[in-house]
Amino acid sequence: MIAVLVTGSRGKSTVVRMIHRAMVACGLRAYGRITGVIPRTLTPSEEVPILRYSGAHVEEMRWWIASLPPDVQGVVMENSAVSPELQHLAGSWLKPSVTVLTNVRPDHQDMWGDGEDNAAKALLKGIPKGSTVVLGQEVSSCPLAMALIDEAKWDVVVAPATVGDTSYRASNESIALKACEVLGLDREVCLRAIRSLEADLADFSLLKTDRGELAFAFSANDLTTTEDLFRSLGWRREDATVLFNHRRDRPERFRVFRPWLDREGWKERIVIGDRPFFIGRSRYVRCLGAEDLKALVDSKGLVFGCGNVVYGAPLELKLFRESLETLILG
């Protein structure tokens, strides 16, 4: 059996889905596990939601590995641990031959601390000894990460930089394809499979309402990715309303985003979801569901949504729009 562990700040679920699709295309009975917007098991033929009766727990990874069928030939799993002290558990349970590190962007500042270096220190604790490490191109530009990797003496392969396409999709494809090559899978079969993978529910997209547009960037979570996604739209900042979806159990994320929200240039700044204790220059709007959010977007025109995706109105609106499109397209 071949096993792959995927870790990093951003892109884990997407890379897991890509590698799993490639394994299946190569004829393997492959299973995957992602814990993004909707935690799922990826089987050789479908995606099955993981039903939780309480909050997420690191032990879910061990349970999931133990539940795999005896005829499994390939496994790819996202490391869902957040605490630095728990990062090593996924590798000790899965025992991967290949570990993928997508990037080391700052996140989970309440546990990791601020900045790229602290993110790198936390995430590198999750790479087991003896595993070949596939790095996203971005990791190779972090001096501390590379110094720690060199010190650990892992066998390292860096995914090539994308040429002519700087999108996150292209970057994730490059990482997934390099992991498949390291596993010895057919490159052309894997490339076709990876590129055929449809976008996931929370992937960045532009939702059009009757009189407005909502840039759905709620799943980005970190400032670098969020700003890159905004720039990719070609919108002028003074024409756009920035909309932050807040969760009371993620106060550090709002603390990190607040200076960016408060910067000059935005047409308007709005916070929905839970009301923060200190809101800065933003205005809080109570948004109870998809219809409220649609009405808000209609009234503002160009709206850039960020912050948190798995909470309240943004995901409801995305699900509603996708269900409507499915009905229209038959």
Automatic annotation (TrEMBL):
One of its GO terms (molecular function) is ATP binding. It holds the Pfam family Mur_ligase_M. Residues 6-155 form the Mur ligase central domain. Gene3D superfamilies: Mur-like, catalytic domain (3.40.1190.10). This is Poly-gamma-glutamate synthase PgsB/CapB.
